Amino acid sequence: SRTMSKHFNKDERFVPLMEKIGNEIVARVRQLVDLRSLFSSMPFGEAKELCFQAKELLLKWKSEYQTTRKR
Fold first, then answer.
1. 44-49 long-range CB contacts below 8 Å, 24 or more apart?
2. Inter-axis angle of helices 44-70 and 11-32, to 10 degrees?
3. Phi first, then psi: what are they for 67, rounded to 5°?
4. Which of 7, 18, 20 minimizes the C-alpha distance to 70?
5. 34 near 51, Cβ under 8 Å?
6. What are the angstrom distances between the C-alpha of 17 and each of 21, 36, 45, 58?
7. Taking the complete model, does pTM exceed 0.85, yes or no?
8. 41 alpha carbon, distance to own chain's centre
């Protein structure tokens, strides 16, 4: 197995890094997709597309995270 970093080569260092990245992605999605004002601030079609894109981003992150953990 190839390690990209000498510092993040063990689970106890790598897992917290991945969690921080995941938490930041979620926080940014929550900022962008504010459910309280989403449908009143933009047309329905745009709001629906934004929600779809946010969902796809989060699913992609989950998939990449799981793939990386298997290595």
1. none
2. 180
3. -65, -45
4. 18
5. no
6. 6, 31, 36, 17
7. no
8. 24
Mean pLDDT by 10 residues, the chain (71 residues): 62 81 94 87 92 96 86 71
Burial class of residue 6 in the structure, from the number of CB atoms within 10 Å of its CB (0-12 exposed, 13-18 middle, 19+ buried): exposed
Buried b / exposed e along 20-57 (16+ C-beta atoms within 10 A): eeeeebeeebeeeeeeeebeeeeeeeebeeebeebeee
Residue-level pLDDT at 3? 55
What letter would DSSP give residue 5?
A: -
